[in-house]
C-alpha cells in the first residue's frame, strides 16, 4: 500500500445513509476566515463551503476536527475549481442514475 492510500475498512462514514436527516444549509461566514462561506453542513464533521484560495474561488468539501475547542479543517477533502464544480454540477443527473443502478 502506498503512503497515500488507505484500505477500505479504514474509512468511516458519519453520514446518514437512510436520508433521514437532510444536511443543514446556511449562508454564514466562518469567523476565522473572512473569505470562507459555509454553504452546507452535510454531517457532523463535513462541510461544503465556498472560499477564495490564492485569488480563485473554489468549492471546498472537507472534514473538520476539534483541536483545543476550536474546529479546524482536516486533510481529508477536496477543493474544486469553478471548471470542476461546473462539470460536476452538469453531471448530477448521470451520477444520480448511476447511484440508483448500484443501489
The parts where pLDDT drops under 50 for at least 5 residues are: 1-20, 26-31
The Cα radius of gyration reads: 15 Å
| Corresponding CATH architecture | Roll
Q: Percent range for helical residues?
A: 10-25%
| Element pattern in H and E | EEEEEHH
Q: Write down the oligomeric state.
A: single chain
Our count of helices gives 2
How many structural domains in the coordinates? 1
Q: Tell me about the largest β-sheet.
A: 5 strands, antiparallel
Structural class: alpha+beta
CATH class: Mainly Beta
Which fold does the CATH topology refer to?
Answer: Transcriptional Co-activator pc4, Chain A
- Overall shape: it is flat
> What value does the average pLDDT take?
78
Q: Tell me the name of the CATH homologous superfamily.
A: Transcriptional Coactivator Pc4, Chain A
Cα-to-Cα separation, first versus last residue: 29 Å
Amino acid at each position: 500500500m502506498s503512503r497515500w492510500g488507505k484500505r477500505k475498512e479504514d474509512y468511516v462514514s458519519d453520514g446518514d445513509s437512510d436520508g433521514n436527516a437532510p444536511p443543514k444549509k446556511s449562508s454564514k461566514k466562518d469567523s476565522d476566515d473572512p473569505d470562507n462561506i459555509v454553504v452546507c453542513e452535510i454531517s457532523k464533521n463535513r462541510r461544503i463551503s465556498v472560499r477564495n484560495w490564492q485569488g480563485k474561488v473554489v468549492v471546498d468539501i472537507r472534514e473538520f476536527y476539534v483541536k483545543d475547542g476550536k474546529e479546524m479543517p482536516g486533510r481529508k477533502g477536496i477543493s474544486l475549481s469553478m471548471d470542476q464544480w461546473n462539470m460536476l454540477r452538469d453531471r448530477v443527473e448521470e451520477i444520480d442514475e448511476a447511484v440508483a443502478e448500484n443501489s
